[in-house]
Amino acid sequence: MPTRPTRELSPLGRVGSLLARVPFNTTTRLEIDGVHYLKKQRRAYAPMLVLLANWYAARLGLMMRMLPGPAWFGYEQLLYDVLHGRHAPASGKRALLLPRLPGRNLLDLLQRDPCLSGEGRMGLQLAAIELARLHACRTPHPLGGGRRQFSHADATIRNVLVDVERRQAVWIDFETAHTHALPAQVRHADDLLTLLSTAAAIIQPAELPALCQTVLSNYGSSVVTGAMKDLVQSWDARPLARRLAFPDLEDGRWQALCEDTARLGLH
Ligand SMILES: Nc1ncnc2c1ncn2[C@@H]1O[C@H](COP(=O)(O)OP(=O)(O)O)[C@@H](O)[C@H]1O
Ligand SMILES: [Mg+2]
Predict the structure, then answer these.
(1) How far is the CA of 171 from the centre of ligand 1 (A)?
(2) What would you report as the CA-atom Rg of the chain, rounded to the nearest whole angstrom?
(3) Fewer CB near the terminus (10 Å): N or C of the chain?
(4) Where are the alpha helices (DSSP H) in 8-68?
């Protein structure tokens, strides 16, 4: 019987794999007085998982941190209000009722259109435009320290909903923050790279140049794109950490992404 090659995981890799598999929250759909909500609640063991996730992020040199329960609760509520103009009422002390927003997440769109021939490409355009809009908003840092330009800190294709009919995208899931001291352009570059790299793991490899072009041109900031290029180079110089930080992106796709961002000649 042929044996399948197995990839040995380092202890740090095992922690990453655990964090990717164990859910932090429960989510339940419900309707109250004709309004559709998603009830989101941290699981009882989530505080331990948050500590582990933040230890892991620090070890890898990631810029994001998971928010502890009370900070998440107030921050997600506040951002639904400030960024989306929607009220997200509390349900008891540990759950939020998030108003259901229209659209499908970008992961779903890209899985259906990996060649970027229609809805996938439109989803990327709208997500990048909306990310640029949010990055221009000033919001309080969830752990205190005053207002600053917003950054998401987990800007994956799962965390943006796209309404193709209305041509609108909304970013969701505000459970993370970038560390406070980082300059806005570095935090924004990290969001842009998260969007690009999570999309790059899903689409047809031949479409990687189109992915970079679509996202970066619609985001529309050469300063942030330049900072993202620097970030790509710094991860490329640390291949072991990079594989853990971008676990779904195989080496060939990462190399193609490096070449495509460099080739665009954006400084
Ligand atoms: N307000 C919302 N309206 C509609 N769908 C949502 C909303 N919030 C989350 N979702 C869906 O639920 C999924 C998980 O929600 P999310 O807030 O990202 O939690 P987590 O990733 O922490 O489990 C999202 O990828 C999205 O598909
Ligand atoms: Mg999410």
Answers:
(1) 10
(2) 18
(3) N
(4) 11-21, 46-60
At residue 203, what is the residue type?
Answer: I
* Pocket mutation for ligand 1, best pick of 19, 21, 25, 27 (most atoms within 8 Å of C-beta): 27
Q: What is the pTM of this model?
A: 0.95
What's the pLDDT band for 265 if we cut at 50, 70, 90? Answer: low
Residue whose structure tokens are 């998260």: 194
Pocket of ligand 1 (CB under 6 A): 24-25, 27, 38, 40, 98-101, 105, 158-159, 161, 172-173, 175
Q: Which atom of ligand 1 is nearest to the CA of 24?
A: 22
Q: What would the pLDDT profile of 17-29 be if each residue is shown by its tens digit?
A: 999 999 999 999 9
Q: What's the pLDDT at 262?
A: 86
- List all residues 6 or more positions away from 4 whose beta carbon is below 8 Å from its beta carbon: none
Domain boundaries, the chain: 19-263
The CATH architecture annotation of domain 19-263 reads Orthogonal Bundle (1.10)
**From atom 21 of ligand 1, which residue's Cα is the shortest distance away?**
173
At a CB cut-off of 8 Å and minimum separation 6, what does 115 contact?
203, 204, 207
Confidence of residue 7 (pLDDT cuts 50, 70, 90): low
Give the residue whose CA is nearest to atom 15 of ligand 1.
173
Alpha-carbon span 169 to 128, nearest angstrom: 9
* Model pLDDT for residues 148-166, shown as the tens digit of each residue: 999 999 999 999 999 999 9
